[in-house]
Predict the structure.
Amino acid sequence: MFKSSKFVSIAMSAALLATGGGAAAATPANAAKPSIVLVHGGFVDGSGWEGVYKILKKDGYEVTIVQNPTISLADDVAVTKRAIAAQPGPVVLVGHSYGGVVITEAGNHDKVAGLVYIAAFAPDKGESVNTLIKDPQPGAPVPPILPPQDGFLLLDKAKFAASFAADVNSDTAAFMANSQVPWGVDALGGAVSDPAWKSKPSWYLVAADDKMIPPPAQRLMSKRAGATVVETGGSHAVYVSKPQAVAELIEQAASNAKVAAK
């Protein structure tokens, strides 16, 4: 009797493996989804992605938040590429603001299946933040950037909320203003050598009330990149104030990137 039961057990195990059952059936559902890598912009760190992170995690995505030093573009690209390389499979790379420059360069990594720009710079070859902001349109708001100190920039704390985070609750906006990460002047001058959006599909969320990167500039860059565009009311900190809208676009990109990666 024991031998017979043992034989049946072995036969059932073999059958399960042959039909994709057993251990294969226990594979987590999110294994088929691309990983999400989130890249912050200047003056802030990765903690602003918390709301987006929680939504994506709840929906079954693996999410990594890059903490860029924002001292030079080359360093930020290197840090981001290390985060990409650590992922088990395809990656959807997301950048906010200056993070758009970083993902435009780092997005050439073989694992990157798609790019998502959130109120971000999307430079072409040879362009940098400096070249993109040097000729603002007449009447465009002027970000309250203080004169550089020791090669780093900060925003005027008293004007931070109005310019960067007008639709974020006052306590959070005050915290963001007082926890600013100095942004290296060298990072603003870092030029893109090979724009990933020329070879990878891209998505773009335009923040219609942005006073840091004017919405017309966002629309122009997104059109040039051939991105799938979604527009929503929101400040430059739309990733903080409207995490659901941001997460929805990222998941749209992830769904399409997953199909493309098969």
Q: What stands out?
A: Confidence is low (pLDDT under 50) at residues 1-30. The beta strands are 35-39, 63-66, 91-96, 112-118, 152-153, 183-184, 202-207, 228-232. The domain at 30-140+181-261 is CATH 3.40.50.1820 (Rossmann fold). DSSP finds eleven helices and eight strands in the chain.
